[in-house]
Structure formats: C-alpha cells, structure tokens
C-alpha cells in the first residue's frame, strides 16, 4: 500500500503499480527500509501491527493474484474495466482499495473513489472491514453512505454507498465530478439502480474521459456486460479453491424449515469442523428456522459444543456484523448463519464449510396492470445456485447440500435471475430520469429494457399526480416531488400538506411509512397485555393517524426502550423514523416550502390530513362491497381484507367497518391484506382526484357511485351564486366550508 520513505511522504509518483512491487518486496512486514516504521500514505501515521496481520490475510485472497493486471488496465486508456470472479474471492474489499491507490497516485486530481453495493447492509459491513484493512478510521478517510445514514466527511477518499444513493446523487451532480473512480460492485444482482447507473455512466464517460468505471460481476454475467460496455479489458479472478462436494436431496415431504433444521443438527452431531450457511426463501422462514434450531439445540449433548444461530437479512440492521465477530477462545463454537438472497454475493465468510440451499426465494413482483405487487415463491436461478455452492469452496473443500433434486435443478431453475427493472414499479425511476433531463426513456441505455406496459403505467401515474406537463416533462410539482427520497405518491401527499396546513403531521406520517414496520409480535405470554396497551394508541380515524400517535408518544417518552417493549413496537424503527423526519424537514426548508404549526387532534386537522393523503393516494382506494370486510380495489377487481393489526379490528367494542378506505400498500399474497388503512369519504375522493382518473377507472359499481357523486358536485358548482349581505356571508363562512367538505 505505502512505499518506504520519510514519515508522511507520499508514494513514488511512478504509478500505483510501484506500490504493489514495494509490498511484495518487504521481508519484514513490521518495518520499512532501513528499519524505519512504514507510514500510511492516507493519514501520515505509522501503520499498526494489525495492518500487517490483515495484509498477510489479504495476500492470500484469490483476487490478490490479479492486482498487477488490474492496475495496468486501470492506468490504461480504457474508461471501463470489467472484473469477473466468483464470490468469496476478496473482490469487494480489495478492488476499491486498489482504486484508492490509483487515485492517490494522481493526488486525487480527478476525484475520490465510490464503490456501490446493491444492499445497504453490505455497504456498511464492507466499509468497516476496509477501514480496518487500510488502518484508517471509519467516517474519515473511509466512509459509507446509505439511505438515512451518511458516515462520510470532507476527508473521505473511499466511499462505500448503496447504488440507490449514487443514482440520487446524479440529480445534483449529473457528471459525478467529485469522483475519479466509480466501482459498480455485484452487477449480477441486477438491481434497478445498478442497471440504470451502468447506462448513465457510459454517457458520463463520453463527457468525462478522465473518469474510470470498474464493473465487478460474477462469471455468469461476464459476456453480457462485456458486450454492453463495448468490449472493455477483463480481469478474471480465480476461484477460492477446490470446489465443494455437491449433494442433492429430494424435496422434503415435510416442511422446508424442518428439513433445513434437521440438516444443520446432523452436521453438528457429526462434529465436522466449520460454520454453516443456510439459504431459505424469506425473512419469515429465517425467523422460524432460527427459533426451531435454537429449540432443538437445547436438547443436544453439551459435549458437541455451543451452536450460535445468527439471522442475516435486511431487517437485522447493524446486528448483521455479528457474523464477523471473533470466535470464543475454545474454538468449539459453531455458527449457523440463516439467510436468503441477501447473501448470494455479499457477506463472504472464509470459515464456512457447509452450505445448505433450499433453492427457493420469495420475491415481490409488480404487476403494472393492477398496480400491485404479488408475493411469488419461485426457484432461484442456476447462477444463484452456483454462487451459493461456491461459498463452501476452499481448502479443504466443504460441502453444499441442495434440498432439491438434480432434475429440479436442470429443469426448473432459470439460467439467471430476472432483472429487477422488469419486476418493479417504475414510477420512482421515471421521475428521477425526468429530473436528469432524460425526457424519453429511449435515451437511457439499459442492459434489459423495461417492458412498455410498465413504462406507460409509470408515466400515466405521474401524469395523474400532476408531476408532468403537457409536453411530458416534469412540471413544477414534479420537480419538487423529485427532491424527496420518497415514492411519488407519498411525495405528492407531503406537498399537498403544505396547501392543507398539516405539514407537521404529514412529515411524521411520511417518516413512519418510510421506516420499517414499527409493530413487533409480542411473546405469547405477553400478547394480551401488549394488545391492551396498544389499544390506548389507536386513533379512531385510521391506521395513518395511529402511526402519528405512536411517533408522538415515542418522542413524548424520550425514545424510551422500555416503553417500546411494553407496547410491542420497535424502538429501532421509531428512531429511524425520527432520522427520516429530520431529513424530510431539511428538504422542505431547503426548497422553501411552508411548514404549518402542529394541530394534531383537532377535527379540522383530521380532515386536512385526509385531504393531503387523498391528493397522493387516490390510486389506492378500496370499497367494502358487502359490509363484511371484502374490499375491492378501484383500479382492479382484486378483493382484499383488513390486516389483523388494523385499528378497526383492534378497537373495543368492535364497530362497523369503514365502507371506503385509503391504503398504503397491497400485496397479493396468502392473506391478501391491505397495509395501513384509513377511512375516507367518497365525496372527498371525487373532489380531489383528477377527473380523467375517475373516468378511466374500470367499469364497476364503485366507479358508478363515484361518477354519480361527481355529477352532483358539478351540478352544485354550476348553480350561480346568489349575492347576500356582507355580514351574513362572513358569519356563514365556516359553515359553508364544512358544507363543502361533507357534500
């Protein structure tokens, strides 16, 4: 990394290749030339003993053999360098460090280094590891930037970030001028931001030839990316060692969770060394399996050693770092990491010797025709299966147990995963691209183009929300919407709250809807007590108002964790909501939107919040067709139900269910429940939703009722006003306003 020389001196300016030569020439890693302590070129301080300990480990990584070749290509004339290799070879930690060496050799003349990750947890985890390897402080020279958390300063020269954050950064800096090298890691994950960044960065390179782009992927994606990027130089990273033993097992007659749990316990009973990586389909399965393994482990012979079960999915947050914590000194502890698609490429662990793969994943797939997602349990792809198997490769090789047959692998698994751009609502993406002055989506280069139906639906939704002008460009409202890191519907509701004087409440609500769900399932023996306490937080006007109640109470009790446990809510989710709320207020102040004083609890405020919500969420309204809780969506014919946590089902005594509701989310799944539901009046929907949206609704009884109401409203508006004495008009002003609301 650093050369030999006077303390604080920079490496020789003959290029980053010289750094490699110096590292390889060192005989005593603790000393530089002539016995002088070697100095870290990034902060001018002597390297610690831990730096050299980690350096020895880094040199054993398979990717290290490619360093000289990579640096040659990076220094060459090609703007793009493609790096291809299996997981667990050190690409995500070493490639960005080498890019930092390259940028340092140029005195950061073209900017610093950014490395994107498809998952925020991976960006956080990698930045911690790389800061340790570079002997630097996290948050100074090495930092990370993920949604709602920016751990970077003006000193940061290597920034790990989620791909979503870098894409959003392009709205204010389209040419990414502060960066000299951009590393797009895990491109094979095919997330929407990474796919879009690939196309946009090709265009940036034409305008900024000095920029370097490094695309890191698995071998399965190499050819497609090579063709897309214009045949750039390719650096191929060898595998981590001998391939593992591959075993197939016929699909279990009993549940997948039981079969996976039994496989883990069998490995532990055999006392074979090594940790276990278990892939399941969903977060729910992960939670159930962790509980089952822990219960079964209590009955095992203590002589087998402790069994530590660790869940790994986005919901665990910073607890994901537990998978890297030091082992007990006895060394007998076995870790079982239970995960899903998150660890297909991220979170490499060199001590894993057993991989158990269920072969299935639960994904949400968006259907533009019905404007709703469907939960789909489906086979993973062959490339995912191969990546998972490679986690057990090494010396000595481990074992990969597939809980499905070889015929299932050959016949049911597709070659590669579907690109997310084909399975996601594109409204937010189209809004962002419009902000980048890409008026026509045909101007944006995609690895796989989005479906025309998805694009048309996204444009139609933005048009309904008044985000587009007559020429299809962003309107003034659309420009303001694009400033918020929110879905377009929520952004529009927040903007409408400025008109209806309920900003304080809508900002809290937007933060609660953006943060992860706040309710935590209580223990069985506490369920009744927690439910009773929760009822005190319920708001009679709906779940949206209940969320505001909960946030306000959390703040009132000074974010007390004990209060959270008593009421069965997540303190972590509520703290995140506080961070999101502060971010949203900062955006509103920056673009000088009016912020009304708090008025939560008044009747007028309830009506104003409902108006603001309908202004953004008129696309998400449902009607109870038979009075028994069977809600039919206005935009399609699917029937949904209220969720068990809904305030209308929890309140005592039970009252009639609301005939018309506005909801935040609906996913077609086993329970087919709406999420976050509040009652609305159809008159208000008729007044605030665009006329052409109501006209375009599919034929139904609900549409007919709304059109009848619309005709009445139009008839009232057409009656000429009768002049009356000024005093009477002033006295009746409030009354007329209420009549207008209720008509």
What distinguishing features does this structure have?
15% strand, 743 residues, disordered C terminus, 28 helices, alpha/beta, 21 strands, single chain, 7-stranded mixed β-sheet
Descriptive notes:
There is one protein chain. The chain is of the alpha/beta class. Helices cover 41% and strands 15% of the residues. It is built from 28 helices and 21 strands. The chain has an 8-stranded mixed sheet, sandwiched between helices. Strands 14, 15, 17, 18, 19, 20 and 21 form a 7-stranded mixed sheet that branches.
Question: Which helices and strands appear, and what pairs or packs with what?
Answer:
Blueprint: H1 17-25, H2 49-59, H3 67-75, E1 80-84, H4 91-105, E2 112-117, H5 120-133, E3 142-146, E4 149-151, E5 158-162, H6 163-169, E6 179-184, H7 192-207, E7 212-217, H8 222-228, E8 234-236, E9 245-248, H9 256-270, E10 275-279, H10 283-297, E11 307-312, E12 334-339, E13 352-357, E14 360-367, E15 372-379, H11 382-390, E16 399-402, H12 406-412, H13 427-435, H14 452-464, H15 476-483, H16 488-499, H17 503-514, H18 527-535, H19 543-556, H20 561-567, H21 571-590, H22 603-617, E17 621-624, E18 631-633, E19 639-640, H23 647-650, E20 660-668, E21 674-679, H24 682-688, H25 691-695, H26 701-718, H27 726-731, H28 733-742
